[in-house]
Design goal:
This protein is an all-alpha fold. It is built from twelve helices and two strands. The protein is elongated and about 100 Å long.
Length: about 325
């Protein structure tokens, strides 16, 4: 076993535990032991378990991404302050100011990467589980040779879970199933990114370089999925597709209920709250905001500014008021 296999061994064991456990439960309910649909539902259980465990991390990612976009104007000021200064002292000072800004707002450039970094080992471990099953080999845990053969040969609409578009492209069933899954993967990934860039970004953040990078990723990530999907087994792509659909739904709920202040989604949420009569008492209403001690935060006056007047005019006004 190579070093990569050693690192993924614990994940493979856990994945096999969840898959075999879900498969046993589904067959106990009356589903066919060797059916590909039984294994697809087992993969769905795996997705639900993994993504449910990742909800706190995903919420932190969304909050961090939102915070990073909102920080771009302040980051730009810091970068402009040290523009052209390449000495070590200036570079260290710039990094310290940027880190202090991240800390003050509870954001981090790395926080948005953690869910993907955690998902990738799980994805590769599942790929290894399927590869072993494709060779009819027992896994590292509960996936024995019989289960491995059942998993490998299980089919949906005539396409086996171990088939790939690159090696089984002569099978019409494999082509139809694989392309359908790839399309769902690409569309769900694109819509997830679209929700962020089009609905959950304030106008100030849209002027930042990070927004342009985020908008570029909206097209790059689906393209990567479309290209690499040709090489992955249908079972692995099924996990990827269902995970993307989960992310899309989770993102929609988060943006609808916890939008970025000043974004289009925040305006729509305010309209919904106003229509239901809940805005006047809602904590997001600036008039209801409180400080850390629970005291109301004084709001800036919004009416017409009182015009200055001379001492003589003020004295005359005072006399009139006294009569």
């Amino acid at each position: 076993m190579d070093i990569f296999g050693i690192i993924l061994w614990p994940l493979r064991w856990v994945i096999e535990l969840i898959l075999v456990g879900a498969h046993s439960g589904l067959t106990a309910l009356g589903l066919d032991f060797n059916s590909g649909w039984t294994w697809i539902l087992s993969i769905l259980v795996l997705v639900l378990v993994v993504r449910t465990a990742m909800i706190p991390l995903m919420l932190r990612q969304i909050k961090s991404m939102r915070g990073m976009m909102e920080l771009q104007p302040e980051l730009k000021k810091i970068q402009t302050k040290y523009k052209g200064k390449r000495d070590q002292f200036s570079q260290q000072a710039m990094q310290q100011e940027m880190m202090a800004l991240y800390k003050r707002h509870g954001s981090s450039p790395l926080a948005s990467c953690w869910p993907m970094l955690i998902q990738m080992p799980i994805f590769f471990a599942l790929f290894q589980v399927l590869n072993a099953a494709n060779r009819h080999e027992a896994g590292v845990g509960l996936m024995n040779a019989e289960l491995a053969m059942s998993f490998s040969n299980g089919d949906i609409f005539g396409a086996r879970l171990s088939d790939t578009l690159s090696t089984n492209g002569d099978n019409p069933a494999v082509v139809a199933v694989a392309i359908t899954i790839i399309v769902l993967m690409v569309v769900s990934q694109f819509f997830t990114q679209f929700q962020i860039t089009a609905q959950n970004v304030s106008q100030a953040a849209k002027e930042s370089p990070m927004y342009r990078q985020q908008k570029m990723m909206m097209y790059v990530l689906p393209l990567i999925m479309a290209v690499t999907g040709v090489m992955f087994p249908i079972g692995v792509m099924s996990y990827w597709m269902m995970s993307n659909l989960w992310t899309m739904g989770q993102q929609w709920w988060t943006i609808r209920n916890m939008p970025t202040p000043g974004s289009e989604a925040a305006k729509k949420r305010e309209e919904r709250l106003r229509a239901s009569g809940k805005w006047d008492t809602h904590p997001d209403n600036p008039a209801n905001r409180k400080d850390a001690d629970g005291n109301p935060i004084a709001q800036k006056p919004t009416g017409q500014r009182e015009q200055p007047m001379s001492k003589a005019r003020a004295k005359k006004k005072k006399k009139k008021g006294g009569k």
